[in-house]
Amino acid sequence: MIKLNEHEVWFVTGSQHLYGEETLRNVARHSEEIAKNLNNSSEIPVDVVFKPTVTTSEQIAAICREANVTDRCVGVVVWMHTFSPAKMWIKGLQLLNKPMCHLHTQYNSEIPWDDIDMDFMNENQSAHGGREFGFMVSRLRKNRKVIAGHWKDEKVQKKLGTWSRVAVGWHAFQTTKIARIGDNMRNVAVTEGDKVEAEVRFGFAVNGYGIGDVVEYLNAVTDSEVEALVATYRELYKTDNPAFNETSVKDAARIELGLRAFLEEGGFGGFTNTFEDLHGFKQLPGIPTQRLMADGYGYGGEGDWKTAALLHTMKVMTQGLEGGTSFMEDYTYDFRKNGSRVLGSHMLEICPSIASGQPRLEVHPLSIGGKEDPARLVFDVGAGPAINVALMDMGNRFRLLVNEVQTVAPEHDLPKLPVARALWKPEPDLETAASAWILAGGSHHTVYSKAATTEFMEDFAEIAGVELLPIDKDTIVRDFKDKLRWNEVYYHLFQNNM
């Protein structure tokens, strides 16, 4: 998985020669100090690299060209220390194809009431210099994130940290390869889509592989490798339970080792499969898929390549954050008068990164798939805020749908449900959220994350140029339907630019 600390964002400051060399020296000194402070911030996981002040159209175009071809650079943070006439930025902004964040700040935090004079005013013009720059970016219809506030404030640094994480995630999204092992689950609609358009729009590639391509790797796994992995299972998970079957667990370990080798050798960031096409596997890959997700691989059930790509990207974004991120599915409802809830789960494939406590390794029959009893990790998910995110191909565009939820601890045991599961209350309530989700054509597969927030997905949608529809505490179905209608017109008019 792509590491956050292997990447950087460039800190570029705009000014002009009108104010003299002393002012430009101060601008450079202040800019370097801010960049160094942001680079040392614990909230920002990538390197923040100071770049010299740009004061001409040629300098701006040159720094944008350089950013475009520097692999380590995933985005540009732009700050207007003084007034920087924005016509100078046209060529550079037209060239720039990396994500951009406009940091609307100033060097000083408060007005120096007793000492302020016109020299100070000329040097510290972010208040209107940022507006001049903002006009040109809007005039050129360039997507960007705008963060307003003082650069030392924790809130500002957190927002910049989120954006930088998403910028690395976008880099991963553009370069990921997804292995579609087998095909789509027969007759299922939402897991299909235009893979060519996805690669044109987003960059990630989806290619199909026969199940036999993976079985070759399974057959190459040695018994000693299986024994070693089973020993690891015993160290990490609870295995002292009646549902632990060593023969089945060894078969699962062999699948994990073979599948992992296939993915590593192919350089894949994610994969899909379907229980309708697993010839050569003794059992459905439960714990293998769960553990691969925990290591950062994306996964989508029933051939769902969009969810696999999105999951891998969100895994990249949320490295080092608490809470975890997993493949998920709304499985069944708990309708009640005082707050209906959703029980989320899947047949087997829920990532242990979201587990509350130590997972149990168990083997149970599975009523579908026609395979031997699969091994899987069983656990509950702890209480706390989370989001469910889905990516759909709507025919003329891709749509990103986000529902904020409140995960709750189950008040009852589920002794006869041998799968990992999460219980949550959707915002604003189940009835509203489900209605809005269905009206938007939302998938039954999602990426569930306690580590990411809606802000992550807002930044991602801005960078990717994709439609975003949040469902939160303020959602009203009537207004949501209007938004769907307005968006349909907007994307019809501007689909060539989306």
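That was protein one. Protein two is written in the same sequence-then-structure order:
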Amino acid sequence: AFGRKTSYIGLAESLSPEGPWTQAGCVVKTDETTAMNAIDPSIVVGTDGKWWMHYGSYFGGLYCVELNPSTGLPATEGDKGHLIARRANYRKDNLEAPEIIYHPDLKKYFLFVSYDPLMTTYNVRVGRSDKPEGPFIDYFGKELKDTTNNFPILTAPYRFRNHQGWAGTAHCGMLTSEEGKFFMVHQGRLSPQNLMMDLHVRQVFFTEEGWPVVSPQRYTGSKSRKFSDIDLLGEWEVLRVREPLYERRLEAGQILWGESELKNEEWNLSHTFFFRKGNKIADGKGHWRFAEEKQSLSLTLDGEELKGLIVFAGHDWENETETILFTGLDSRGRSVWGKRIK
């Protein structure tokens, strides 16, 4: 039931992904007497073989419950799990859509969550843990369940030049290719009305500090290649992904009808910079440095140093051409995106 905790996560099973499916039982059932809300399940198998399901929403936060691998049902009958993530005011500060993955090289579990209302300022945050059941820690060493706003922030409403922009860029799923590449899928709502949802697919990279970051552009399978300093010369659009500042009126964790369009100050907009020879950025705005071996870019813009930005080939959707992209995090856990446009 929308706007209530009357929810149910059931289990169906089949010998084939095509079915037929047989209902096997109830995993978690919630109502107005429970703290949690039984929606949005995400399951991970730990390195020790134990199964864990993460689920929940703005009602009470996100929870984790151990499952029985032989049945898919809770390891302890009736168990609804323990709290793993929550915001301070769950009626106003929306939190939902947990998605958990394991990174075998980093030996970390990553919990992706979605903040704020899905039609407008929806954005993705992430925490990590050594254990699938948590605790999950953010960029600044804070637990995701300590009711503070957590970082990094990976996606948020954005607008590059030559496009009206995308809102609602969250509620993500994570995929891993056979080659070991990571991808994020999430909704994107075409602005300005934000009523039509498209599926966005973005490649995910991991910084030297072991945090996930996503491509500023949707994935098209662009052929990977190595770049040198000379490839980076030219005009760039740089976009800083920051958290929403405007406080909206919410109903059941979602935006009220009539407030579906973004305010001007809610957009993450791109700004133009010119990378010149001598590692200078035109008009005295800073300088840049490229580490060819690591394919890593460092920028100094207006006195702020941005380190370890990951450089790769990709598609420029707004200008319909192949280009060079970068992604990374600033010192405050906010994503930094860039694309060369000339």
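The longest strand covers residues 304-316. Keep this in mind for the problem set.
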